[in-house]
Amino acid sequence: MKPTPTNNRVLIGMSGGIDSSAACLMLQEQGYEVVGLTMRMWDLPRHFPHEGQTIPQFALEARDLAEKIGIEHHILDVREEFKNTVIKSFIDEYLKGNTPNPCVMCNRLFKWHYLLQEADRLGCSWVATGHYARILDLDGFRVLARGTDRKKDQSYFLWRLGQEELSRTLFPLGGITKEEIKAYVGSKGFHEKVEKKESMEVCFIPGDYRDFLREQLPELDRQVSGGFFVDATGRKLGQHKGFPFYTIGQRKGLEIALGKPMFVTRINPVKNTIRLGERDELLTRRMVITDVREAIPGILESDAPVEVQIRYRSNAIPATLQKGDTPGEWLVCFESDASAVTPGQSAVIYRNDTVIGGGLIADQRLLKKYKA
Predict the structure, then answer these.
(1) Strand pairing class (126-128; 346-351)
(2) Which of 3, 36, 58, 256 is 20 to 30 A from residue 78's alpha carbon, by CA?
């Protein structure tokens, strides 16, 4: 673990939105010397609403706020690096038949990498963001916990942050609600921040991820066309558009009529097949997770009760864990049915509201080596 920060200079990631703006104002009020950093990661047409504009609108809005509250501000162009890491990983996961969590990957391997790098360069002991999460001290370690506002809690996306990151991170919004943030920012006179519509989509995808994949890989349709929908017995049901264009649990957009609602239950990228089944075929009491990270060494224990969250917009499910046969691999045994367990998604492990670990959901075929 890095030594305790020695000054009150904090570098905050500024997106131009209400949350990072509120975090700036709060840190300033708490006596920190705030320095703003806006990362230019991926350009979209909506970022340039005015003819001839060369700096994205969100960066201009962040810079404007920094000027109004009298703090230092920097814009960091990391578009090429973002493309070669986050975008590449996103595409590669779909080509493996998985459904990735780009925000999880970005936070640990990209966003905090540059926040800490620039913090060191600018002489800042701390980094901060506008995430809705908390950091607690536990047995001499810094660990993540859910934000007070459960509807906005973002600890799920942050589980891969380790001691190096958490020992220097501040989450000013972790203990308050979104409504309180709106009232606070409005009281400071920044009403345009309160009224601005927030985007809920992945930052680099303006619409359907399938269109994004096609844009990045012009030959993709030709490469993955000709595959078949199949049932649990392997019987062909009809042709699909290509395995990267589907995800586990999908019902809409299949463009195949079978007389009853059918769902994607399995994706085989090698055979380019999509297995379809009824809703109950999506249910399971077990799954395997890989690349598991423990918040504190040894905190994950076999048979100890935990709660496991398998997607952002879902409740954590009570479960127990069993250490797997392979390093970094654990078997999750749910106490009730989990639906649409999706390879590539994150499984975040909680004890009460504290993040004690997490991993990546593996293909359900890995269950074959574990006895029921």
Answers:
(1) unpaired
(2) 3
